[in-house]
Design brief:
The protein has two domains: about 5-180, UDP N-Acetylglucosamine Acyltransferase, domain 1; about 195-245, no CATH class. A hairpin with a 4-residue loop joins strand 14 and strand 15 (about 175-180). A six-stranded mixed β-sheet has the order 3-6-9-12-14-15. It has a five-stranded parallel β-sheet with strand order 1-4-7-10-13. Strands 2-5-8-11 form a four-stranded parallel β-sheet, with no helix packed on it. The chain has five helices and 15 strands. By secondary structure, it is an alpha/beta fold. The chain is elongated and about 85 Å long.
């Protein structure tokens, strides 16, 4: 039911959202709460959603979806009124973000532009991701199905994730591969967002090395000249300190 308690809860959540934007967006440094509320699309989308979600929970027809529709037109962010969102969500830029009906988002989560928390198939019931606390999801990442992304996990930009992500794990690629677990990498350099390893390129490098070894063995057995080694030139890795300050 709607009432003073609901209004107070929405106001409290909105204050936390504004604080999250100031803490996690360098562009918000020195910007007042009123200006953030008036000009940050992510904050506006969250305000609209929290109102629509309260109305949806109270069983109000039509209005919650209408609010969501107007919010999408104004901000480019689509959030279903039934989606459950915790406190301190920060949606950076936000264009193209889609949060589905049965999605659940914990506290202090960060989403960048183009993120999709989508469903798979036409089944009813839980069909969208559950994002636990302190998760960061990079630009363009697609998380599909009723998966769970554990506390403190990170999803790299443009990754496609269709399976559960353990807590404190970094995932990159399509399909998503873990490159860092509980602060320790299965393989690859110790990296930040800009320096994430590429598991596909590493697999191709390993395959090229294996082919080179086989060609050398065949040449030795047949008495032919050893072929020139095949080299895979990887993209130049980013160097220097993390721009995120890590």
């Amino acid at each position: 039911m709607l009432g003073i308690g609901t209004v107070a809860r929405v106001a409290k959540e909105l204050r936390r959202d504004v604080v999250a934007a100031r803490d996690r967006d360098p562009a918000a440094r020195g910007v007042g709460p009123v200006e953030i509320l008036a000009t940050w699309p992510g904050i506006q989308a969250l305000l609209s959603h929290r109102v629509a979600h309260a109305l949806h929970g109270a069983g109000v027809p039509l209005l919650p979806r209408s609010i969501a529709l107007v919010s999408r037109a104004l901000t480019g962010i689509e959030i279903h009124p039934a989606a459950r969102i915790g406190e301190g969500l920060f949606i950076d830029h936000g264009s193209g973000v889609v949060i589905g009906e049965t999605a659940e988002i914990g506290d202090d989560v960060t989403l960048y532009q183009g993120v999709t928390l989508g469903g798979t198939g036409f089944a009813t019931g839980k069909r969208h991701p559950t994002i636990q606390d302190n998760v960061t999801i990079g630009s363009g990442a697609k998380l599909l199905g009723p998966i769970t992304v554990g506390h403190g996990a990170k999803v790299g930009a443009n990754s496609v994730v269709v399976t559960d992500v353990p807590p404190n794990t970094t995932v990159v690629g399509n399909p998503g591969h873990p490159v860092r677990v509980e602060g320790r990498r299965p393989e690859g350099p110790d990296t930040d967002w800009i320096h994430l390893p590429d598991p596909i390129a590493e697999a191709l490098q390993g395959l090229a090395s294996r082919i080179e070894e086989l060609e050398r063995t065949v040449a030795e057995l047949s008495g032919e000249e050893t072929p020139v080694a095949t080299q895979v030139r990887p993209l130049k890795r980013a160097t220097g300190p993390s721009p995120a300050g890590g």
